[in-house]
Here is the input.
Amino acid sequence: MAANDHDSDDIYSEFKSDVNMTAAELEKWLKTDESKSVGQDSGDGSSIGHHSGEKIVRILHKKKADLTADDRAHMHKVHSYISRHLAQGGPDDKGETETSPWRYSLMNWGHDPLKK
Here is the structure.
């Protein structure tokens, strides 16, 4: 196995572990006002995270063999984002987690921290 294949497998595994929402769940979430209420504006009125969620949905609909270099690069970006945000730990008052911008932002990136 070439080094690139190993890296691709690692990125794929990390992505599949981090993204705990299905494509259908994420598509439904991205249509909500809560989804649109968080994140840094990408310049077109939609947040960077919202655009990321749309890309994640497309990736989730693909077979592993059909992933492109751009898909793998985005999967790595998703892993980095989710890892950083989870390390922040969310709201101090855990009772506020469900409706927090922290959770909403993570969900735009395909990870619901409350999902078992």
